[in-house]
Amino acid sequence: MVDSHCHLADETFASDLDAVVGRARDAGVEAALVILEAGHDGEAAQGRRVEALWPEVRFAVGVHPHHAGRYDDGARAVEVVRGQLAASPSARAVGEIGLDYHYDFAPPEAQRAVFRAQLRLARELGLPVVLHTREAETDTVAILREESGGGTLRGVVHCFTGSDALAEAALDLGFFISLAGIVTFPKAAALRDTARRVPADRLLTETDSPFLAPVPHRGKRNEPALVARVVDALAEARGASPAALAQQTADNFRALFRP
Asked: What is the pTM for the complete model shown?
């Protein structure tokens, strides 16, 4: 079982990181992808703590769309990401990156420029991308298609909650689809329907912790151990055994991130 997207470098975990890692291992979580915000010294330092406690973790480094406005242009963002990737031997992806029009944290034009630049960096380095998209499906898909590099761009749509059209476009581009704790929510029937249609070899599981704790922990801090609830919900939706789904998604994680 793998948590393909978590924020263990977030300050929320600073005081009990060792216990959080211990619970993940006890729950059977064999590995995780930890997201680091490029240029954030505090997250980089805690990332080193995570790795010391859990050597099987790998990292993704990127400029989140919320922070795109901090950079003059995409070139400056890429400079920061490139440097941090080079200094992080356990980094395996560029992310999380993308577009978010739900909040007004960064101008859309800045988001698009920084997104494009990081997609190009990922292709240059041969790394997959971890994609965040919220209320920006049309622009996200258009940019992905324009920057696909003839099919050389790889990645995952993390914490998928989008439309069937987004799922189909992502799958057509060769991307994986990752489901988080939202798939356990009672009102998420449409998301579970989408999850049933994702090919088994393109499916990933995640927590997005400390956010989006699954039922019955909703409203509390999320953590990697709770990816087991996501696995159970997806297995039930797809008519599979939890063990088989955990194995398949772990294999998919290794295929995409090559840890």
From this structure: 0.96
CA dist 37 and 43 (Å) reads 7
Over the stretch 82-133, which tens digit does the pLDDT of each residue have?
999 999 999 999 999 999 999 989 999 999 999 999 999 999 999 999 999 9
d(CA 5, CA 207): 6
Q: The domain containing residue 67 runs over which residues?
A: 2-257
pLDDT tops 80 at residue 72: no
Counting the structural domains of the chain, the total is: 1
Following DSSP, what letter does each residue of 181-239 receive, concatenated?
Answer: GGGGSTT-HHHHHHHHHS-GGGEEE---TTS-PPTTSTTSPP-GGGHHHHHHHHHHHHT
- What tokens does 17 get? 């990181």
- Structure confidence by residue, pLDDT tens digits, 61-70: 999 999 999 9
Alpha helices (H) along the chain: 17-26, 41-53, 74-86, 108-125, 137-146, 164-172, 189-197, 227-238, 242-257
Q: CATH number of the domain that 197 lies in?
A: 3.20.20.140
Instruction: Read off the DSSP letter of residue 73.
Output: S
